[in-house]
Input
Amino acid sequence: MPDLARNPKQIGNLIRRARKQRGLSQTQLGEKTGLRQATISLIETGNPAATLETILTVLSVLDLEFRIAPRSKGTAADIEDIF
Amino acid sequence: MPDLARNPKQIGNLIRRARKQRGLSQTQLGEKTGLRQATISLIETGNPAATLETILTVLSVLDLEFRIAPRSKGTAADIEDIF
DNA sequence: CCCTATTATGCGCCAAAACGAATAAAATTC
DNA sequence: GAATTTTATTCGTTTTGGCGCATAATAGGG
Output
């Protein structure tokens, strides 16, 4: 079930959650993606100027992917996703 | 129905399609998003280093949004999406 | 508590995004 | 096929990502 990802913070939070679910540290995820631990940290804290490529790489390594869909109305479940 | 967006080219193509569906030129989309026409052009042609913020802005103006989902197996429908 | 693993920050560097402004190239329209 | 709209590309500038490297700051575990 796809999670809403409307802004960099939401994306960062989802990535962080997925990383932890997989039992990875930022350093380990960095190794798998070829990115610095510092870069992972920036992404997870919601850096809005992160590069598309970088985000896609991280998602890929976490076995996730983006989907593009018509903007949905804010459901209760969506609101949870803010933090 | 969410479209797969695994790489910058797919994202660019989806954005282009959505823009045209709404009868907008790159210039008009640029005005609505506060981005240059040249920037829209780059995005649509799949610039991998585009900024997260920029992409999210464009999606938002087109009434679209990202979702993050577990990577799906490549279905026939997904393959269509390559172009 | 202390020690250690983890995450957040800092500095200098290089490459490139996005900007304004302009123009070239391509596609539409008449 | 000329005129016009649309899209791609260029130049110079400012800003910032991600890099290596290093170090704070903050959990967590024993």
Observations:
- DSSP finds five helices and two strands in chain A.
- The beta strands of chain A are 3-5, 64-70.
